[in-house]
From TrEMBL:
Protein name from the UniProt record: LysM domain-containing protein
Chain segments annotated as coiled-coil in the UniProt record: none
Domain LysM: 116-163, 180-224
Annotated keywords: Signal
InterPro entries found in the cross-reference section: LysM, LysM_dom_sf
Signal peptide: 1-24
Membrane-spanning residues: none
CDD domains assigned: LysM
Length: 368
């Protein structure tokens, strides 16, 4: 565990530990819009994901509405929940929810494309919107820049603000990744974040322009490049840029108008695993055949070393490829169908407990 210092309302510094460096409050002074995104591909778009820490008890459809996400299923899948999850299923206060969105790169930085749009409520300030409503995923400066607000102190109820969620479409060390926006918890370290997402501490430091843990600010949103799976999706497919990351707690990502669900894990040597989703398609009356031609196999089936893999889709068909299988002991059984896991419960409990714990302190700073 890290060492903490707490600052009381009197401004006195109470020390709980030995060597102490107190960090500035938050990343609000610079108005960088998103993560660095130098991808030169004209108008590059890709998958972005942020971890939203819900400030209140709420529901998944409410979170979906706040973030302007089109499909609730995409949120459920990114959070390890079954498609059948009822709309009333609670999201607890302090729970971190993975929000998938489309990332767009321009002018050297990556931000969410067009969403969310937030309507200012009576009494809101930009700081409140950035730090409370959007749990520090954005700063008041980035909202002001994205929404072209010249006087950040002057926003009116009913104003519609662009919320630029940070993201990037850049490869990292030549590898395709999905950039995850993670809000740094008080008392965490680069090492801990690296372990949580299975990303090396060196890469985290370099990508976020940090020289050491000392530069890591509580509540800053940092760029965590999640390794993405390789696939045999064709470059002429409508989802040729479909990228699925190895994201802890995520179960599946949907594609082909929701007919196919895919997952990515180290257990399959980071090779994309797909199978029929068995949910109603979003843009077809029924899902096209998912059978590999000339075989009795469907996407996700295997015999010995031959696998029926997902290879993309066109506006009428789903493409398949009879191929070699990834290195694994149990090909088809690997896709988590979204059963509620005890891991989630334990994580939630820990989050809740730590929140209660921190609640007793006036302010918690990152200290070394
Ligand atoms: C691009 O970014 C620079 C600073 O990084 C800024 O001065 C300029 O206005 C931006 N251009 C556009 C079109 O957003
Ligand atoms: C982090 O943000 C939360 C939510 O806005 C706030 O309650 C907390 O005081 C902040 N912590 C620090 C260290 O700034
Ligand atoms: C959380 O709930 C409280 C009580 O209902 C409300 O006053 C507050 O505005 C909510 N916070 C956010 C960020 O929605
Ligand atoms: C931003 O606002 C200023 C005036 O406040 C206006 O002159 C300018 O055209 C606006 N820019 C955009 C991109 O809306
Ligand atoms: C740029 O982004 C595109 C997807 O929009 C991706 O195919 C390509 O590999 C990326 N290039 C680099 C150098 O990151
Ligand atoms: C973490 O990454 C390493 C290297 O890619 C891999 O061998 C290991 O299985 C991964 N662990 C998890 C839990 O994904
Ligand atoms: C990286 O950090 C250094 C010192 O903190 C700063 O001078 C530099 O502008 C930063 N670079 C970027 C790309 O943020
Ligand atoms: C698409 O892939 C084929 C081979 O699978 C290759 O010949 C072709 O050049 C690729 N096209 C593009 C635009 O990358
Ligand atoms: C895992 O995949 C990589 C590249 O995708 C390949 O080079 C490596 O041989 C594979 N590992 C095994 C054990 O097959
Ligand atoms: C083949 O895949 C289909 C669809 O996922 C599944 O229902 C069936 O059980 C699989 N068959 C075998 C032999 O694995
Ligand atoms: C449905 O598919 C057609 C053809 O691919 C496409 O033009 C249209 O935008 C799609 N609609 C939706 C809602 O995805
Ligand atoms: C569907 O595909 C056919 C060719 O396969 C093409 O002619 C047609 O324009 C496509 N329709 C849409 C809506 O994209």
């Amino acid at each position: 565990m890290g060492v903490f210092a707490t600052v009381g309302s009197s401004g006195l510094l109470f020390l709980v530990g030995a060597v102490v460096v107190v960090m500035a409050l938050g990343p609000t002074s610079t108005a960088a819009l998103g993560f660095s995104c130098s991808n030169s591909t004209a108008a590059a778009t890709c998958r972005g994901i942020v971890g939203y820490k819900s400030p209140n008890q709420t529901t998944y459809p409410a979170v979906q509405a706040l973030f302007g996400v089109t499909d609730l299923l995409s949120i459920l899948g990114a959070n390890g929940l079954p498609e059948s999850t009822p709309a009333t299923a609670p999201v607890s206060k302090g729970q971190v929810i993975n929000i998938p969105f489309t990332c767009s790169c321009s002018n050297g930085t990556g931000t969410s494309q067009g969403i969310p749009i937030y309507t200012v409520q009576p009494g809101n300030t930009l700081t409140y919107i950035a730090s409370e409503v959007f749990s520090n995923l954005v700063t008041y400066g980035s909202i002001a820049t994205a929404s072209n607000i010249s006087n950040p102190d002057l926003i009116l109820a009913g104003d519609k603000l662009k919320i630029p969620l940070p993201c990037s479409c850049d490869s990292v060390d030549g590898e395709r990744v999905v950039h995850y926006g993670h809000v740094v918890a008080a008392g965490s370290s680069v090492e801990m974040i690296g372990q949580q997402f299975n990303v090396s501490a060196d890469v985290l430091l370099r990508l976020n322009n940090l020289t050491s843990d000392k530069d890591l600010l509580a509540n800053a949103t940092i760029d965590v490049p999640l390794k993405a799976c390789s696939s045999v999706i064709r470059n002429d497919s409508l989802d040729s840029s479909f990228l699925v990351p190895n994201l802890p707690n995520a179960a599946y990502f949907l594609t082909a108008n929701n007919c196919v669900k895919c997952s990515c894990s180290s257990a399959n040597n980071y090779t994309l695993q797909c199978q029929p989703s068995q949910i109603a398609p979003s843009n077809w009356t029924t899902c096209p055949s998912m059978q590999c031609q000339g075989t009795s196999h469907y996407i996700g089936n295997s015999t010995g070393s031959s696998c029926c893999n997902y290879a993309g889709y066109t506006n009428q068909t789903i493409l398949t490829s009879s191929d070699t299988c990834p290195v694994t002991d149990n090909y088809a059984a690997k896709i988590n169908t979204g059963a509620f896991s005890w891991n989630t419960v334990v994580t939630l409990l820990m989050v809740t407990l730590s929140l209660h714990h921190f609640h007793n302190l006036p302010t918690v700073f990152r200290v070394f």
